[in-house]
């Protein structure tokens, strides 16, 4: 009988032992989260950098990045004008200096100054990220800054803006307008018919009430004395 407490003690120890077991060494940490996709700025910077490198390869004679100077960067910016969408009026154009030209003209389309300035900023950063020395960065050359300033001033004088196609307002078809008029006429005639019917009903009810008072007398007239 005295062995029962000892037996229960062994049971208590065995029941609590699983909670003290160490974590298996084979367990692995959770996987690292997937890297975030590149931002819009980073994606655009990568595309601009690849475009510039392609321009250097197609240059005649071909150019290497080490031989690239500010003059070559300006040539690249002028090359991009053929893909521009901003009309910059010449000094002899009748629309020169007008902020909102009333119609088209023969002036060329060019890259807007703001687009070129942002492009140079992205290429300047991409050049240094690719291992280029900041003091040799052709996109930070003084000639490039002067060119951008001249583009900004010339476009400010010309007030060149892209032409926007005006959206034509959709007008309802004539049939729909005629149908609306017919519907309105039908509603007015129906309203008149309802008014006439109501008047006739009122008159009939009025005559009935007068006859009703006469019918209240006993049949056969008044009783004889």
From TrEMBL:
Belongs to the plant homeotic and developmental regulators ALOG protein family. Its main location: nucleus. Residues 1-44, 157-225 are annotated as: Disordered. The gene is LOC105045877. One of its GO terms (molecular function) is DNA binding. The lineage of its organism: Eukaryota, Viridiplantae, Streptophyta, Embryophyta, Tracheophyta. Residues 184-207, 215-225 have a biased composition (Low complexity). GO terms for biological process: mRNA transcription; response to light stimulus. InterPro entries: ALOG, ALOG_dom. Residues 40-167 form the ALOG domain. GO terms for cellular component: nucleus. The keyword Oxidoreductase does not apply. It comes from the Eukaryota. This is Protein G1-like7. It is found in: Nucleus. Keywords: Developmental protein, DNA-binding, Nucleus, Transcription, Transcription regulation. It comes from Elaeis guineensis var. tenera. Residues 27-38 have a biased composition (Pro residues).
